[in-house]
Design a protein that fits this description.
This protein is an alpha/beta fold and 478 residues long. The strands form 4 sheets. It has an 8-stranded parallel β-barrel, surrounded by 5 helices. A two-stranded parallel sheet has the order 6-8. 38% of the residues lie in helices and 12% in strands. It has one domain: Alpha-Beta Barrel (TIM Barrel), CATH 3.20.20.80. Strand 11, helix 14 and strand 12 form a beta-alpha-beta unit. Helix 13 runs parallel beside helix 14.
Length: 478
């Protein structure tokens, strides 16, 4: 018997992002956004992460799976019915900024885009599924990237505030839980996804990234203040990609190095958004890396006034650090760096699997902030095989999720206040990192392949019925 119980109002559900499943990229008055020009396949990060990416579509060289996604735009009723059949209490989703403001700069929103999300929220309400809405999830309007230089440009603060305020006013009776920026702290690793620019050089990457983050901190705080004013009962959180950082051994030099990496990657953004001020350790880091922030009068007051109500996080892997590491020691597949951990197995894509790391992460965050936590992404990207009888026996996914849910239960027993759990890609969708459909996360299989072929038929995997029972028993039967 487990020595924990999940709270009776625990929010079980699943998570997706608009750009990875909606499709209909030119329908309903939607403007182009970053995901629309990102090619599919393992070349994706190589192409978009380098200076000189021209943000143009080249059908002769690449495929663009995000254009169709899994056609949620037209099939949302079918998909939400499947979520309801699993017993979802909540559904974490994002709104595509360029559906609401096609260029990002308009003074008036696009009514067709607003009406689409009205229909989605109404469908969720029909099944008593509570939406958790990410305002910006790698969906920066392309116009703000090509004409304004992304979040390096302070003008995006005002554009974002108008967008967020529009959402709060429109959906104030339909959405209670909001998140501002998806995986905000990941921006220093891949600035294009979160900040909407490719650094010109490695020398300018840190300066531009931390300046862009400052603009997002101000924008996030303004959104928090607006949400509290327009929807007094709302709860609005930050969203971190969290990876507890281990030292490769007990050499104090490696321990110190891992602490420094932990602080900058895991703590920096959280400290600003939760505590409302820049952490003391950032001063030395900025000096040693020649980072000088342009902070305008009033910015720090806004950040202090606009702290979040809860902390949401994605957790996929831990990170193991060593002060002086060779290229051969770096863990393959770990987008956030680090060396291989000899005690951990890895997924088909090289992501190390560490359920205990989730318990550590939740304890670290709760110890630091004493704010409610919400695991809004966690899952296993894997190749799925359809058996001769049409079934999909994804025991590997069940094993992964079981161990991580157990780790959450242990964290609750440790005293952590945990609001809910929404595994990533509850229905198969386009991978953000590689643009592949074959990297599947879902409880629901979608017949679409990497080359774009497929019927888009939905099919329940074994994990669908397993997770259904987990929700029914409130985590007592894993």
């Amino acid at each position: 018997m487990a020595n924990y119980k999940f709270p009776k109002d625990f929010l079980w559900g699943g998570a997706t992002a608009a750009n990875q499943l909606e499709g209909a990229y030119l329908e309903g008055g939607k403007g182009m956004n970053l995901a629309d020009v990102m090619p599919g396949g393992k070349v994706r990060l190589d192409v978009i992460g380098k200076p000189g990416f021209d943000f143009k579509i080249d059908h002769e060289k690449y495929v663009y799976p995000n254009h169709e996604g899994i056609d949620f735009y037209h099939r949302y009723k079918e998909d939400i019915a499947l979520f309801a059949e699993m017993g979802f209490k909540t559904y974490r989703m994002s709104i595509a900024w360029s559906r609401i403001f096609p260029k990002g700069t308009e003074s008036e929103p696009n009514e067709e885009g607003l009406a689409f999300y009205d229909r989605v929220f109404d469908e969720l309400k029909k099944y008593n599924i509570e939406p958790v809405v990410t305002i910006s999830h790698y969906e920066t309007p392309l116009h703000l990237i090509t004409e304004y230089g992304g979040w390096r440009n302070r003008e995006l603060i005002g554009f974002f505030e108008r967008y967020a305020t529009t959402l709060f006013e429109r959906y104030q009776n339909k959405v209670k839980y909001w998140l501002t920026f998806n995986e905000i702290n990941g921006a220093t690793h891949i600035p294009l996804l979160g900040l909407g620019f490719s650094p010109e050089t490695e020398e300018t990457k840190l300066q531009d990234s931390f300046q862009g983050l400052h603009h997002q901190f101000v924008a996030s705080a303004l959104a928090v203040k607006a949400a509290h004013k327009i929807i007094p009962e709302s709860q609005i959180g930050c969203m971190l990609v969290y990876a507890p950082t281990y030292s490769t051994d007990c050499d104090p030099q490696n321990v110190m190095h891992s602490l420094q990496e932990q602080r900058i990657f895991n703590n920096y953004c959280g400290d600003v958004q939760v505590r409302g001020a820049y952490p003391a350790f950032s001063d030395r880091y900025f000096k040693e890396n020649n980072i000088s922030l342009d902070i305008k009068e009033g910015d720090l007051d806004v950040i202090k006034e606009g702290t979040v109500d809860f902390i949401s996080l994605s957790y996929y892997m831990s990170r193991t650090e060593k002060k002086d590491k060779t290229p051969e020691e770096i863990g393959q597949g770990n987008l956030i760096g680090g060396v291989k951990n000899p005690f951990l197995k890895a997924s088909d894509w090289g992501w190390e699997i560490d359920p205990t790391g989730l318990r550590i992460a939740l304890n670290q965050l709760y110890d630091r902030y004493q704010k409610p936590l919400f695991v809004v992404e966690n899952g296993l990207g894997a190749y799925d095989k359809i058996e001769d009888d049409g079934s999909i026996i994804d025991e590997y996914r069940i094993d992964y999720l079981r161990s991580h849910i157990d780790a959450m239960g242990e964290a609750i027993a440790d005293g952590v206040e945990l609001m809910g759990y929404t595994p990533w890609g509850c229905i198969d969708l386009v991978s953000a990192s590689t643009g592949e459909m074959s990297k599947r996360y879902g409880f629901i299989y979608v017949d679409k392949q990497d080359d774009g072929s497929g019927t888009l038929e939905r099919k329940k995997k074994k994990s669908f019925f397993w997770y259904q029972n987990v929700i029914t028993t409130n985590g007592e039967e894993l």
